[in-house]
Sequence to fold (116 residues):
Amino acid sequence: MVGAEILFNNSFPYQVKDKNGKTTGKTRYIHTYGIKCTNGSRTSRFIVKTFNNESEETYCVIGDIIKLTGTLVEEKWKDDEGDWVSRVSIYADSIDIIDDEDDEVEDVKPKRKTRK
Fold:
């Protein structure tokens, strides 16, 4: 996907577990982004997730234009009334920030550059 705009970003901590399922004491972060993609007159919105991030700070900020590769995943859960709810998210393998001024691309993942 190329040319998606970041609408929001969040970071959620979790404890890393070893092979036996016990926590290791390491904290990692799930970064989530809301993105908007426009193709002609059609606009789509998705949730994008990256896992195993070492920093709480997200790599993309609101308004960044990105390109990404990843996998579409259907997430299912039960709501408060016990009904199944689902949505499609993108589990990103890589996210690149596109710099419109000179068309340079900043590789955000896996090199994990932080924004200045």
Remarks:
- The chain has one domain: 2-107.
